[in-house]
């Protein structure tokens, strides 16, 4: 490959490999919250110019995975424990609404996709790879959301699921340590069965319980591993 072709390739696509690598490392907490991301250092690491690195950081910023400070330094976005109650409240509403709609409106084709995503998640759980688990978990819930046929609610839900992937990583660590790693697969199976049976109320109840389990385990993890005192009120009961 000529030098000119190599430069053209890097300028056109180089940022994608940087973006994907950094995104995976951020979601897997290999790059911890608050970690400085220096363009020069990253350019040397990926053996690229700073332009594709800068583009990758811009896109990670759009994903809310990195933050640019007032001095123009870029860091991995902090996990804001103080705002977690508001986050989980929004997640609970989005999860319940999308799952309710899926139970009411799903088609046979939707059920096949949801079942396929469930198998993918189960396979990911068996690997113990938390990043693969969080990605597969998101795909499962988005398959349910798409079955609900409301693109606005699905889009809102997807954003919340993406924002919560690092917290889900900690949630998985807690489940693994307490030997409850397969609990999520059981809950997903119950949700699929409720959607398949068009049982809207049960789907709502299961979605709510799913959020509550995530909330409780994340907070338990934080209390066990950090000195920060985390106080949360109970989630509103499913109606």
3D structure, described in words:
The chain is mainly α and 239 residues long. The chain contains 10 helices and 2 strands; from the N terminus they run H-H-H-E-E-H-H-H-H-H-H-H. It has helices spanning 3-27, 39-46, 50-62, 84-105, 108-127, 130-147, 151-163, 165-177, 183-196, 200-225, and strands spanning 66-68, 74-76. It has a two-stranded antiparallel ribbon. Strand 1 and strand 2 (74-76) form a beta hairpin. Helix 4 (84-105) crosses helix 7 (151-163), helix 5 (108-127) runs antiparallel to helix 6 (130-147) and helix 5 packs antiparallel against helix 9. The chain starts with a helix and ends in a 14-residue tail after the last helix.
* Helix-strand makeup class: mainly alpha
Strand order of the largest sheet: 1-2
What does the radius of gyration come to?
20 Å
What is the H-and-E element order? HHHEEHHHHHHH
- In total, the number of strands is 2
Helix content: over 70%
Number of helices in the DSSP assignment: 10
Descriptive labels:
single chain; 239 residues; mainly alpha; 10 helices; globular; disordered N terminus
Short description:
The protein is mainly alpha-helical. The protein is 72% helix and 3% strand.
List the helices and strands and how they pair.
Blueprint: H1 3-27, H2 39-46, H3 50-62, E1 66-68, E2 74-76, H4 84-105, H5 108-127, H6 130-147, H7 151-163, H8 165-177, H9 183-196, H10 200-225
Antiparallel strand pairs: 1-2
Helix pairs in contact: 1-3, 2-3, 4-6, 4-7, 4-9, 4-10, 5-6, 5-9, 6-7, 6-8, 8-10, 9-10
């Amino acid at each position: 490959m000529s030098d000119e072709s190599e430069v053209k390739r890097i300028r056109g696509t180089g940022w994608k490999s940087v973006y994907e690598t950094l995104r995976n490392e951020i979601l897997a907490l290999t790059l911890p919250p608050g970690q400085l991301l220096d363009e020069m250092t990253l350019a040397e690491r990926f053996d690229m110019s700073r332009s594709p690195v800068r583009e990758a950081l811009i896109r990670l910023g759009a994903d809310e995975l990195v933050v640019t400070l007032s001095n123009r330094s870029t860091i991995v976005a902090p996990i804001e424990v103080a705002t977690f109650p508001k986050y989980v409240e929004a997640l609970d509403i989005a999860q319940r609404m999308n799952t309710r709609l899926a139970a009411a409106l799903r088609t046979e084709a939707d059920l096949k996709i949801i079942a396929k995503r469930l198998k993918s998640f189960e396979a990911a759980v068996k690997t113990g790879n938390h990043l693969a688990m969080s990605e597969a978990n998101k795909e499962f819930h988005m398959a349910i959301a798409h079955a609900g046929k409301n693109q606005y609610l699905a889009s809102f839900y997807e954003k919340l699921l993406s924002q919560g992937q690092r917290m889900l990583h900690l949630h998985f660590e807690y489940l693994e340590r307490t030997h409850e790693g397969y609990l999520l697969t059981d809950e997903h199976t119950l949700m699929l069965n409720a959607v398949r049976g068009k049982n809207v109320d049960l789907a709502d109840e299961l979605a709510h319980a799913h959020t509550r389990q995530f909330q409780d385990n994340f907070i338990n993890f934080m209390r066990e591993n950090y000195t920060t005192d985390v106080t949360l009120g109970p989630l509103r009961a499913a109606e």
